[in-house]
Design goal:
The chain is an alpha/beta fold and 216 residues long. Helices cover 41% and strands 19% of the residues. The protein has 9 helices and 10 strands. It has helices at 27-39, 54-71, 81-86, 101-108, 122-130, 155-164, 180-186, 195-198, 203-215, and strands at 3-4, 16-20, 44-47, 74-78, 91-94, 113-119, 135-139, 165-166, 169-172, 190-193. The protein has an 8-stranded parallel barrel with strand order 2-3-4-5-6-7-9-10, surrounded by 6 helices. Strands 1-8 form a two-stranded parallel sheet. Strand 6, helix 5 (122-130) and strand 7 (135-139) form a beta-alpha-beta unit. The two termini are 29 Å apart.
Length: 216
């Protein structure tokens, strides 16, 4: 049975290059790199900074919210539904220990996006959608420098999810320009990338390459 979850009033949904910010304490440098990523065609930006304290997170999130508005990109906050509410982000992304979908929905309302990390487990994705998730993320598909010990996900999992879940599917984990096409072919709607764009020698060009892979 296909599980469906539709929100027609939301922005153009989760598709394309889903860029995730690195742990960057220098706000000016974070904004410089992020602007290049958005110029390269990223359609979604997730703010994730495990090193910043709450005050710096708020400062950076506000600045990134303004930048994503400038480029018409969807802005997602990692882990923190309250911060997402404070900066009027499009939504929040929840990991396994980041609270419930119900709690995030109660805080943010029905017109915001809630994404959920499902790692390498289809049962988590099935449950997440039943509980109101607007998109799900699987990974890591390849070795990741950000999370070297992450569970390994398979292309078969993406294919199953594409058949049985009618919400956008995000692939994450060690994704490069060379291996990204295989994930799109298997059913991913978006490629979540951190190092592949933010650490690239030419950030804007790298973002454009990823964007073209998803659009192909």
């Amino acid at each position: 049975m296909t599980i469906q979850k539709m929100k027609p009033s939301l922005p153009s949904s989760i598709k394309g290059l889903y860029a995730i910010t690195p742990d960057q304490l220098d706000t000016a440098e974070l904004l410089r790199k992020t602007k290049l990523v958005l110029q390269g065609g990223a359609t979604v930006l997730q703010y994730r900074n495990k090193l910043a304290d709450a005050d710096l997170q708020l400062i950076q999130a506000v600045a990134l919210r303004n930048l994503t508005r400038e480029f018409g990109a969807i802005f997602i906050i990692n882990d923190n539904a309250l911060l997402a509410q404070q900066v009027a982000a499009e939504g929040v992304h929840l990991g396994g220990a980041d609270g419930t979908i119900a709690a995030a929905r109660a805080l943010l309302g029905n017109d915001k996006l809630i994404g959920v990390s499902c790692y390498n487990r289809f049962d988590l994705a099935h449950s997440a959608v039943q509980n109101g998730a607007d998109y799900v993320a699987f990974g890591a598909f390849f070795a990741s420098s950000v999370k070297p010990n992450a569970p390994v996900a398979s292309l078969a999992l993406l294919q199953q999810a594409r058949r049985e879940i009618a919400v956008p599917i995000v692939a994450i984990g060690g994704i490069t320009v060379e291996n990204g096409a295989s994930l799109i072919a298997a059913g991913a709607d978006a490629l979540a990338v951190i190092s592949g764009v933010f650490s690239a020698p030419d950030i804007k060009y790298s973002a454009r390459q990823f964007s073209e892979i998803v659009a192909a």
